Structure formats: structure tokens, C-alpha cells
Amino acid sequence: MVPKAILSAVSMAKRQYLKIPNTNIYRPYIGIWLSHPQTEKKTPLIQGLLDSGADICTASKELALWLGISFDDQDHLAHIATADGSISKAVKKVVIISLEEDRYECPFLFVDGIPPDQPILLGQAGFFDHFKICFDRQQKAFEIF
User: Fold this and answer.
1) DSSP secondary-structure letter at 18?
2) Can you give 58-96 as a three-state secondary structure string?
3) How far apart are CA 92 and CA 94, in angstroms?
4) How far is it, in rounded angstroms, from Cα 7 to Cα 85?
5) In whole angstroms, what separates CA 132 from the centre of its chain?
6) Which end of the chain has fewer CB within 10 Å, C or N?
7) How distant, in Å, are the alpha carbons of 64, 67, 73, 87, 116 from that of 80?
8) Which parts of the chain have pLDDT scores under 50?
9) Helix ranges (DSSP H) in the chain
10) pLDDT in tens, 23-55
């Protein structure tokens, strides 16, 4: 369960969807930081896409390597199907996700083949299971409780 401090820090006024550059498309992004508990390396503020269709949080394998996460033959490789129907290899690792002033451990699939410039997906396991999220697509806004 998420400590009340996280809920109070994250819960706030409606946040606006962000416009994807050079398009008329708006999506629900939230600023987060990721860090690795062993290396203590932390990303700058990055935008994570709230993706209610994603089973688990995902990011590129390059981001994991940047955080100093090591991979070896003992790691369990998963095969995941992406929205476009392609199959990719992924490794599940736990990182620390920070929102506002609070942080918690979060499972991530680091996927081989996702370009590093693709958004981090915040999915059901690791993000949605910690919060209540209310989307207001008509107003291009959302709230996190």
C-alpha cells in the first residue's frame, strides 16, 4: 500500500495533457524521476506516459544501462507483445520511481529494441496499482489521487 504522504503529495489539481510536438495529439504525461538503488544514479526529470493499456511499466534497455543496471545470463528474459503486434525481449528489474517529494520501488520491463527517445510507459503494475487516476479526455486533463 502507498503511504499517505505519497497520496497527499501527488494528489493535486487537474493536470493538463501535453501536446506531442508537431501534431494535434495530446496525451497524459507526468514528470517522474527513476533511480537505481545500487548505483544511486538518478535520471533528470522525465515525462512518463500514463498508459492504462500497459500491463507493467516499460522503458528502453538503454535507460536501464544509463542507470547502471547490469544484465547477465541469470536474468529472466521475457517476451512481450507491443501495441503494434511486434514481439520484443525484455528484462524485469526494480527501480525507484519518484513523484514530487515521494518515492517507492517499482517493477519495470526494460525492453530491447525500444528507441531511447520513446516515452516511458507507466502501466497497471507499478503505477496504476498505487493510485486512483481520473482521466477527463474531453478537457484534456487528469487527476491522480
Assistant:
1) E
2) EEEHHHHHHCCCCCCCCCCEEEEECCCCCEEEEEEEEEE
3) 7
4) 35
5) 16
6) N
7) 17, 22, 19, 5, 17
8) 1-9
9) 4-10, 61-66
10) 999 999 999 999 998 898 999 999 999 999 999
At 54, the amino acid letter reads A
**Cβ distance 25 to 140 under 8 Å?**
no
Instruction: Please report the pLDDT score of residue 12 as a whole number.
Output: 58
- Residue 79, all three cell numbers: 517476451
CATH numbers and ranges of domains, the chain:
4-144 (2.40.70.10)
Decide: 65 and 58 in contact? Cβ < 8 Å.
no
Length of the chain: 145
Query: Closest Cα partner for 107 from 52, 57, 70?
Result: 57
Q: Cell 528484462 belongs to which residue?
A: 91
Q: What is the model's pLDDT at position 59?
A: 95
